[in-house]
Each structure stands twice: as C-alpha cells, then as structure tokens.
Amino acid sequence: MIKTFTQKVHKLSTNLNILRIVKLILAASKKWAFISILFIVIESALFYSSFYMVKVLIDMVSKHGVGNLKDEPLVIKYVILAAVSTIAYVALKSISSYIIEKQSAKVTEYVDDKIHRSAIELDLSFYESPEYFDILKRARDMGNDRPNLIVATIIDIGKNSINLALITSMLITIDWRLFPIMALFIIPTLFVRINFADTQNILRLSQTALERKSSYFSSLLTLDTHAKEIKSFGLGHHIRKIYVDIRLSLLDARLKISKRKVYQEVATSILATSGLFCCIAYIVIGSMHGSTSIGDITLFLIILPQSFTVMQTLSTGIATLYQNNVYVKSIFELFDLKSSLSEPQNPQSIPNDKNIDLELKNISFTYPHSNRPTLTNINLKLPAGKIIAVVGSNGAGKSTLIKLLCRLYDPTSGSILFFGKDIRNFISKDYQKQICAVFQDFGKYNVSAADNIKFGDIDGKSRPEIDVIEAAKNSGANLFIDKFSKGYETTMGRIFEDGQEVSIGQWQKLAIARAFYSPSRFIILDEATSALDATSEKELFNSLRDRIGNRAALIISHRQSAVKHADYIYFLYEGQISEHGTHDELIALKGGYFNLFKNTSL
Ligand SMILES: Nc1ncnc2c1ncn2[C@@H]1O[C@H](COP(=O)(O)OP(=O)(O)OP(=O)(O)O)[C@@H](O)[C@H]1O
C-alpha cells in the first residue's frame, strides 16, 4: 500500500503541471498573484497568532491563580493583541475573498484569450481532425468557472500548507507525537481521493469522443442549423433517443465509480475520526499525568478541529486539482499544438509587381489520416489578370485544389509558385492575403451588412465607405441591402434581436461582395454562385472581368454558363487533370468536359 501511495504521490507531482499552472497564473497577472500570496501569508499568521495569544493568556492566568493582580497589565495587553489580530484577520479574510475573485477572473480571461489565440494560429488540418476536437472539447469544457476553481484551489492549497506548517509547529510545542498520529489517520483519505480523481480522469478521457457525440446530437435538436430538416422529416424524437442513450451510458459509467468512492470515503472518514479521538485521548491522559498545561490543552482543543479541517481540505484541494488536471492538461495540450505549416527562416517579401502568376507544379496531395491521394501530379497556371476555370464531377478534388492554393494545407509533393517562387518562402499570412476565396460553405456573419463586406479587408480600416457600396454593387448585394431601413448598418441573420434574415442567395451575394472588397491579387469562386438566381448569375459572369478589376480569378462551377467565359479551363477527373483548353477546344474534344455538360443548355 505504501509503495502504491508513493507511486501515486510521484505520479501526482509529475502529472499535476503545478509549475506550468503557476507560470500561467503569473502570466495572467503577476501583480494580483503576489497580492494574493501576501494576503494568504498575513491572514494565516494573524489567525494562528491570535490562537497562540489565547494560550499564553490562559497559561498566565492559570499560573498566577485568583487574586494575583501583578500581571494584570500584561494580561490586558495580550487580550488587546489577541483581539486586534482577530479583528485584522476577519477584515483581511473579507478583502482576500475579493482578491481571489479578481485573481481568478484575470486567469479566466487569460486562458479564454489564449484558447482563442491558439485556435486562430492552427491550420485547417486541425479543424478536420477528431483528435483536435477532443482536445478542444476538453479545453472548452474547462468552462468559465474552472480556471476560477483551479486558482482558488491552488490558493487554498497554499493557504492550508501554511496553516499546516503553523499547526505542526503548535502541535510540536504541545507534543511532537500528535502530528504523526494525526497524519497517519488522515493520509488514507488523501490516497482514496487521489485514486478516485485518477479513475475519473481516465474515464473522462475515454468519454470525450462520446461526450462530443452527445453534444452534436443535442445541437441538432437545439440549433437553427438543422431545425427545418429535423421538423420536416420528423427526426426530433429519434435524435432525442440517441442523445438520451448516450447520456445514460456516460452517466452509468460515472456513477459506478462514484459508488465505489462512497464506500472508501466512509471507511477513511471512520479512520480519520478515530485518529482525532486517539489524539484527544493522548493529550487528556497526558494532562492527567501533568505533562501538559491547561494552556496547552486549550490550544490543542482550539487547533484540533482546525488541524483536522486543514488536513481534510488539503487532501480535498489536492484531489480537486488532480481531478481538474485532465482539463488543465488539455489546455496545455491545446497551447502546445503547432501549425503544421512551416514558416520560412528567411522570409521573402511579397513583390509589388502587378503581373504576378500563380502556378501549381506537379502537385500531389493526400489528406492527413487518409491513405489515398486526392490530387495527383497537377500542373495548372493562374496568370495575372486571367479567368481560369476548374471543372469536374463531385469528389474530383476541386475544393482540395483551392485549399492548397489558399495555403490552408501544404502539398504532399510538388510546389505552388507565386511570382516563380515556392509559396513556402513567404510568411503564410502575407501570402494568404494575396488570395481570397468564396467557399462553397461560405461564412454567414451575424454582424452588419457593411461589416460582412469589410471582413474581406480587415486591415483596411480607413478605406472609404464607397468601396463597400462598390463591392456590394458588383455582387448584386446592394439590391437587397438598399431596401433595409438601416441600409448597410442592418445586422444580418436572426441570432440577435435587431437582426434581419436574408435568403441563402442573398447571403451568397454578401460573401461575393466580401471577396470583391478584398485587395487580394487572386479571387477564387468555389461554387460561389450556386444559390444565385439565373439572371443574377448570368449578369455576374458576363461582366466578371469588369467586376474583379485587374485581378486573376479561378472559378469552380458545375454550370456551363459560369465557366464558358473563362480564358482557360482545366478538367479534373479523379484527382488528375485529364483535359485542358478553352471552352470551344474542350467541347470540340468531346471528352470528359463535353460529356459533363452535354445534357445541359449553354
Ligand atoms: N478533410 C478531408 N480529409 C480526407 N479526405 C477528404 C477531406 N476533404 C475531402 N476529402 C476527400 O477528397 C476528395 C475530393 O474532395 P473535394 O471536396 O476536393 O471534391 P470536389 O471536387 O470539390 O467535389 P464537389 O464537386 O462535390 O464539391 C473526396 O473524395 C473527399 O472525400
């Protein structure tokens, strides 16, 4: 048992990340961390000094007996001192609860911000990995209160450690044997609690994926994203049942552990209470033999419940910290994740030259966790100022190609050349600014119409409002924005009180306006007009060249009307370019491109 306990203690100290947590607390606010420590030390010192003065008083009074007034001024002095330190302790205790709250709030904000910063820095591959979502879920599960709890627990452990040291020194002044007797009876409680926390952590880790699944099914029922389908297919109760079954299995596993803990806690509580009474018996018998003074007995009786509470709270604190360790670890795991996109040691600056081509050279790409290449040996050129189209059936790899062009992923082999240089020579953020894309699953931001467009150039804060209107006109979004009483200041979507829901096609026009507003050199439209009515789409593509200015564009579309105006077209088949040429050349070729469109009107 002792060996297991030592192993547990070792595991505890290495697993708890105490040093890292302390560093995190200091990073959140050094000032408040030091103030907290100062208050803890003073508070504990005052608490125990008032106890000690009571002991001295009682010893003084009992030694001199009734009617002896010689030491009266000294007695009064000690009474005043004990009163002052008790008053100071009470006042300090109230202030320190505010300080702990302040300190915890600082840590919460800091952790929250750091989680967001980490998420911003990660590349797209993380967002497509279940492992990342498990880490993120656990980190997010920290909730806003957990950092508070952790800080408060650490402070509590600090406070109780100081208290324990003071109690030990006081117990030693009475009889040094009292401390090991008490410790011996309390240690099993700590052992049980750590063991329970450990089992709970293992369970929590193994349950993360299932927890995420249950959150997913809950969100299907509660969020607006699937409400229409779920109601029209009558899926509600079916999904609710799946959710309930998952929750029950999670709860069942958790309750089994808790039940075991209850039995063990009862046993250790009996043991600890026996320890307490052993100490009482020891000291009382000691006083009967005259080896302990009245003051000692009084002090002992005052600090006995304290020492008992201190040791119990200390073990609870350590167990709580251990229990929360799984969340803390996930936070640190998240902070430690590094983008898989490498940044150059000596980055090259983006050239000002207007005529810059983008070229894919022998590109092959396999998704992480996949064993099949999605793209093989792709050669494609996006010359400055030209409109290029990529066409292919579902799953051919068109969107993947765009992810590579946007440097959301790096190719497995081959290179993407910007101005003749591999894009990995540029800082990824600088390069990404050169390209803007309207994705199939474009963003619908519940902010004003103007901000929806301005998100295309978040650094261009001082740009004139006319640019926003110009971008909206070019995408056709102005047609519905102008009808709102608040115009461009109207909040889009119905999530917020004053929001205005718009149709999917109108959302898409906003997304296209965002791309037009962007100062990037290349525009990518990936099925970006799929929800537009035929007239709007025709108007957009008929004059696309005017709308995008002197920029180059890459269009992906399943509609012939959208791609036929392109200067050059690549036909993608199962991840490879099987045909390329102008629209007329490809039609004349009567190959894949021709077959894809042969049943649709031009
Ligand atoms: N994150 C991913 N991880 C693994 N495989 C993926 C991932 N995303 C896409 N794929 C696979 O890559 C292939 C190409 O997908 P992609 O989205 O590029 O096709 P697409 O040509 O754009 O299709 P569509 O016309 O339907 O939009 C598909 O077989 C798909 O299953």
TrEMBL record:
It is a multi-pass membrane protein. InterPro entries: AAA+_ATPase, ABC1_TM_dom, ABC1_TM_sf, ABC_transporter-like_ATP-bd, P-loop_NTPase, Type_1_exporter. Keywords: ATP-binding, Membrane, Nucleotide-binding, Transmembrane, Transmembrane helix. Residues 358-599 form the ABC transporter domain. Gene3D superfamilies: ABC transporter type 1, transmembrane domain, P-loop containing nucleotide triphosphate hydrolases. The chain crosses the membrane at residues 32-54, 74-92, 149-172, 178-196, 266-285, 297-322. Pfam families: ABC_tran. The lineage of its organism: Bacteria, Pseudomonadati, Bacteroidota, Sphingobacteriia, Sphingobacteriales. GO terms for molecular function: ATP binding. Residues 34-323 form the ABC transmembrane type-1 domain. It is found in: Cell membrane. It comes from the Bacteria. The keyword Transmembrane applies. This is ABC transporter ATP-binding protein.
